[in-house]
Amino acid sequence: MELHFINPRKNALAYLVKILSGCLILWYGLRALGIAEPYWAMISLIIVTEPDMTVAKANFRARLINTISGCIVSCIALVVFGPTFLAMLVALTAAVVVAMLLQNYPSNWRLGPATVVILLSAAFTGQGLSQELHLALMRVGEVIIGSTVALLETVIYMWLLKLKSKPEDGDAANS
Model pTM greater than 0.90? Predict the structure, then answer.
């Protein structure tokens, strides 16, 4: 029985290797640094991972812009309203408005409002403004670290491809 509908896409192995190796780096590296469950770093790694450097840079830039704008909006909402559902709704509204009004805002603008939900939901478990802001900023740190690991893996991947495509000195002499 042949399974014609199962056909690996181009770069499937590259995605698999980069995502698995990146998750291992993040899981054990961040746990060693004291972050018990670095899920947001791993999610960011998956979102940014691409075999093409141009696309990886665009994903990294978009993730960074959305994370920072979502963080700013969330922290303002936390300070003004506290860790409440109302704060989340106001911050979501503000994040969408920012994304829709700014020229050249990244096309995957939904990551900004998603960041608001992530950060404010983390703050809901805090006990006091300083702990809530700390939890929110920890999530942002994880996102930035995960995105950076994905970009660095793409740099390494591109470097390995260049090495592979260069003819060895001995091969050139034999031609």
Answer: no
- Render pLDDT for 57-85 as a digit per residue (tens, 0 to 9): 988 988 888 888 898 999 899 899 988 89
Cα dihedral sign for 83, 107, 12, 6? positive
7 contacts: CB under 8 Å, gap ≥ 6: none
Residues 106/62, Cβ–Cβ less than 8 Å: yes
90-123 tens-digit pLDDT? 999 999 998 888 877 887 888 889 889 888 887 7
